[in-house]
Fold these 2 entries.
Entry 1:
Amino acid sequence: MTRRGPSRVSSHAHGRSHGRARRDWGLAAALLAPSLSILGVFVLYPLGRAILLGRQRCDPSGDNCRTNGWHQYVDVFRSREFQQAFGVTFRFALMTVPIGLVLGVALAVLVDKQLRGMGAFRTIFSSTVATSVAVASLMWFFLLEPSVGVLADWIGGTAKNPGLLHSEGTALWAVAVSSIWANLGFTFIVVTAGLQGIPADLYESAYVDGASGWMRFSNVTFPMLGPTLLFASVVLTGRAFQSYGEFDLLTGGGPNGSTTSLTYLIYGNNSLIKNDQGLQSASAVLLFIVLLALALLQIRGVEKRVHYGN
Amino acid sequence: MASVRLESICKTFDGVAAVDDVSLEIHDHDFMVLLGPSGCGKSTLLRVISGLEEPTSGDVFIGDVLVTDVEPKQRDVAMVFQSYALYPHKTVQANIEFPLKVRGIATKDRAARAAEAAESLGLTEYLHRKPAQLSGGQRQRVALARAIVRQPAVFCMDEPLSNLDAKLRGETRAELVALHQRLASTFVYVTHDQVEAMTMATRMAVMSRGRLEQVGTPAEVYARPGSVFVAQFIGMPPMNIFPAGAVEASDVLVGVRPEHIAVDDAAPLRATVSHVEQLGHETLVHCRVGGVNAVVRLDSDAPVPAAHSEVGLVLSNRHHFDPVTTKRIDTAGDR
């Protein structure tokens, strides 16, 4: 009796926990179903379709596609057009991300003071976050276009003829300036939030110890902003690689493909592959892989040096 | 090693006076505790001394040098914050070395002095850890090591023990006293905890509502409180304050500490016991006397009166206070 008692209890308990686990799974599935269905319909299914479509070549109508095999991905990656667009996109990211981060941090640090009127500056600096790419691009177009642009008149030289947007040497920089401006509000807000999370007594301690403004920035502000800067750099890199509106509205991928980014190669009106959904899909999937690899590299490479607090 | 002199210091924030006309002399080698309830201006006063706040009016002298408009760096003060303010991304060693680094001291000298400071506070084995990997007490010691490493003239400490548990607080109090004696330096220490003030201070300044209530040694302040506020702020349970005419035929307030009241059934001053708290080492008898509540402290071996019973009380060591100003009135009988 004494030996069977506990085993009966144990088998009962086992059966109960089994039934409870089944019920928990049912409840979990029911709760997850709405988000899973949205994820499936709007993310996973299109991603799967795009991956499959990337193996195909299609006619301009997209109705007739034939399978070309997985090696199409390799062919697209090795193609001159993809490599050139990848180079343009990479240079664009190298221009926009560091400059955008430096400007965002500089502006946020400048207005991170309890002084009268700082609220107005915070509003101004963060306002570009509410400006669409289309509006920002049109604004910069009107500033830079030689026939109507104010800046073109002021700067003169190449800016006037043929115009910064029309010269192979300056077009990518001109688009980058527009993009940096448009993304500045986002970086400013994120860094401002990061700054507000730094305890004031760290600064006061450094101040009493005799640290100069630069030492307080380099020993307190910058390291304490690590997680914020990592987040902002991953997001800005993603945005740079996915930028499309600026290229379409400001340069249309030109002149001579000098601003044909990966996204413009995929979607753009002047793109060589605009009539082949298969090649467009292959390029889009390759862009996805590149972005994934870059984000992982950034996070893995920097994370160990980033301090996440206590 | 220096004295600190505050002359008529006022500090207002948006028209509200945090510190109101405070003059205070802190002697060389003093362990001066600024004591008072939250919002009394003690931390603001400490920040004025350290240079983190500029006084609205008045002057600060360190030694004989007027430093009112001098940057903290030139004042030669070190500050220990309530939160310790350790740099979470730096190791213990880098934290301790930081004040030396900003002064441009060579790496080798920095390391030697940091090691010395760490050793004096028992931190040698933690030098390569980050603050997050330390206990509260160890972090507090790192903050102290960072303060002592550059041998400042004055140490300013803003409630450095308030984040520690009761046991550790007791141990650290003793360590701070030993540190003060070893360094033979001037400490200015802010706390709202009267036990810290009584056990560590060589002199204490009691503050209330931005003003200085009384300055003296802990024994002086306890034995001869300068006002009703001080009398009730120092001592636990606080001093009993009886209104004029309640326990003696006079027109002044009468203060008696709980340990200076004895129970004697034959005494003419009658009281009704409300309830009794037996704490093991002592017994607190709460009673109603002369229309006010009073607390009597009895030794643990004294007979305990029953609740709701009537007892007689004998008052000794009476203190007298002006009913209008609430300031102490010195009479021959209150000593």
Entry 2:
Amino acid sequence: MNAQILALALFDGLSYAALVFMVAVGLTLIFGVLRVLNVAHGSFFAMGAYTTASVGSAIFAAGFAPWLAFPLMAVSAILIGVLVGGTVEKLLLSRIYEMEDVLQILVTFAVFMMLEDVQRLIWGVQPLFESTAVNLLGTIEVFGIVYTKYQLLFLPAVAASVLILLRLGLRHTLTGHLILAVTEDREAAISIGIDAQKVYLVTFIVGASLAAFGGALASATTSVIPGMGADMIVLSFAVVATAGFGQIEGAAIAAVLIGLGRSFAVYFYPELEVLMPYLIMFVVLLIRPNGLFAPVEARKI
Amino acid sequence: MLEFEKITVSLGGVRILRDVSFRIAQSDTIALIGANGAGKTTTLRTVMGHVKSTGDIRFDGKLLSDVPPAKRSGLGIGYAPEDRKLFSAFTVEENILLPGKVARYSASEMARALARVYEILPELKEMAGRPAGSVSGGQGKMVALGRALMVGKRLLMLDEPFQGLAAALARRYAEALRDLRDRDPEVTLIITESNPSLLERFTDTALVIERGEISERALKVKPVEA
């Protein structure tokens, strides 16, 4: 019995960590390159979920094949990333990079508030639920617990693939090299001909698409409701701060840490559920103020 | 080939350059001399477009204000900043190749450009595979010069290259510059330095910058046979 609950907490924690990672890694990527803490990131998550759930409901009601649920997630994510993310960067953020950090956060916060209303305008306030993808993969029994393959296997596998692809992409493609160069030193990058503005735009679109993809993945397992973006952005801030800003692998480990912490709290100390992620962050930052994986900064003098 | 006309630059409310005007002809080797804080680095950063300036800068007759900063290296301007600014995520060779990749050199162009860099700076070949973050300060200056050479076919701007260089390395660096001079006589060189005596060996023309003002070709350092 106890082992079952333990396993349940572990599985829940891992699949939750996978979703949080998708959002947190985009957030940390954007921060690493643009040096902007993007509060609107939660909106991309929510809009990815809404798009997938609403389009999914419509096409499956019209009799399209259920396997389309998977490509639909990717298409929705890219659509939101390019259209909404690209517009936000191009129209707003690109004008304020030289300004103070506080102002940048306020601008992305304003974007977040506007996008919350845009969601209500488009999708209303009724919960949407579309779980074709989960049903399609079926269930699996582990230690006598029946679990959905979607949550137990698919979500962690997707998150791990995203992590590996992201690392390979940064290391082995020209776009990746440009992103790394601009991250390390914008002025030196421009001096050798790198169009930093374009790199910013591409990075923001990739980051926004990852968040939207997280939302698309989440939409199959939970009701899509107003406010889900706010919950997610707060949680992924905790993950990013715990890992250290700009740390991609660190975000994965911190997401697992916080995902597990939260789900163990759910099963063993339910009253701590909401508090747990912040408790972990608090303890980590007390010991390592720059986060678990932040490099030691070389002092200039 | 490079003309400053009444250039004024202010950074954080402080005027760094005032009404600076000068002209540099093609193939010149120019020492930009001045004390720390005089505005040498700002002059170079202004050419690269990293600071806002008023006035006109012309490069090969073309107004640089019409060229976005990221496109200026494409005009053939190579810039080696004082603090080297290598990309530690890459190896030494990847650092050198990056400007060529950005400029979308063909494979043969790339091979030719890299061969030129290694001919002028053979020591870079030995450390090609090392992570750029692991090389010493002096070696880093060599790498930064190599990287600037990849694109700097018309103009090379070197910011305090001898600063903090051990004597042997400084000699090697100077030798490499003379080698470059012999090989590509048409390249224009601007080298900043706070100590003019270091540059006497391979330049005969100096611009002196004092409190943000440049005295035009004020100093004629005597050429000394190398």
